[in-house]
Amino acid sequence: MINYLRMFVRDEEGVTAVEYAVLAVLIISAIVVALGSFGSGLKAAFDAISALLLKPAG
Questions:
Q1: 24 lies in some domain
Q2: Which residue ranges does UniProt annotate as crossing the membrane (predicted)?
Q3: If phi over 0 gives left and psi between -120 and 50 gives alpha, with beta otherwise, what is residue 57?
Q4: In whole angstroms, what is the distance from residue 3 CA to residue 9 CA?
Q5: Rounded to an integer, what distance in angstroms lies between the CA atom of residue 46 and that of residue 1?
Q6: Where in the sequence is the domain holding 24, given as residue range(s)?
Q7: Does the residue 44 lie in any domain?
């Protein structure tokens, strides 16, 4: 049992996959936060553009 535990502690297989998964979660979190903070500003900009396009020429 002790030998199995030592082998488990020394085993580094799969560590890279976990690191990539953690990195992916951090990147996705940053994207979600960025989109959330820019979301209202983008909506206002597109609303203004839409209002200009729908305004009758005169």
A1: yes
A2: 20-42
A3: beta
A4: 10
A5: 64
A6: 13-54
A7: yes
Which one is predicted more confidently, 24 or 37? Answer: 24
The tokens for 32 are 């979600």
What single letter denotes the amino acid at residue 16? Answer: T
Q: How many domains does the chain have?
A: 1
Residue 48 maps to a domain: yes
Distance CA 40, CA 7 (A): 53
Rounded to an integer, what distance in angstroms lies between the CA atom of residue 32 and that of residue 7? 39
Q: Residue 20: inside a domain, yes or no? A: yes
pLDDT score for 37 = 83
Which pTM value belongs to this model?
0.51
Express as a percent the part of the chain with pLDDT over 70. Answer: 97
